[in-house]
Design goal:
single chain; binds fe (ii) ion; globular; 6 helices
Length: 178
């Protein structure tokens, strides 16, 4: 659907703004990172639950961006800004590699906390770049953020229900089987 810049700032269409949705995800994941940091070293149950939740949230979030946001950004942004989309894909690759490491580790194992810390630092860096560079560029573009938000909300509900059905038994990226 064609959209004008004005469509992105007009409120009340009923559709969610894609970037506002993604920013809400960012805040949710940051909370999980902070909670993990504050958890006592020996509270393995809490750490396992937080790590699992963060991996699930991040798996769905990265899929939504890669399936819907980044292709739209690549199309809508001028050549000079496309590098930000390319960088985002590379950073996602690194984050997903760390998420996958949790499939072979359990809480309390050597390296578990370190992997979680490095993953959270990498995500924080990536989120900062998205919110300071990519998202503002998209807000200035003609990309229809409400139509995108609509599609994103539907896809998110679908991924979430598949994840719920798959059950949450272990830490790791379950979306690989979706
Ligand atoms: Fe991202
Ligand atoms: Fe993001």
């Amino acid at each position: 659907m064609e959209a004008t810049k004005q469509d992105n700032v007009e409120a009340g269409s009923g559709s969610p703004d894609a970037l506002a949705m993604l920013e809400a995800d960012h805040r949710a994941v940051e909370k999980l990172f902070k909670a993990f940091e504050k958890t006592a070293d020996d509270d393995l149950e809490a750490k396992a639950a937080l790590a699992q939740r963060a991996c699930e949230e991040l798996s769905i979030h990265t899929m939504l961006e890669e399936e819907l946001l980044y292709p739209a950004a690549h199309e809508a942004l001028p050549d000079s800004d496309k590098i930000d989309v390319e960088e985002a894909y590379v950073e996602h690759f690194l984050v997903k590699t760390l998420i996958a490491k949790f499939e072979t580790m359990k809480v309390g194992d050597k390296g578990f906390d370190a992997t979680f810390k490095v993953m959270s630092e990498m995500v924080n860096h990536h989120v900062e770049e998205e919110e300071k560079e990519l998202f503002p560029e998209l807000r200035k573009s003609t990309c229809n953020l409400r139509a995108l938000g609509d599609g994103m909300a539907k896809r998110k509900a679908q991924l979430q229900s598949k994840l719920d059905k798959a059950g949450s038994k272990a830490v790791g990226d379950k979306t690989a089987t979706l």
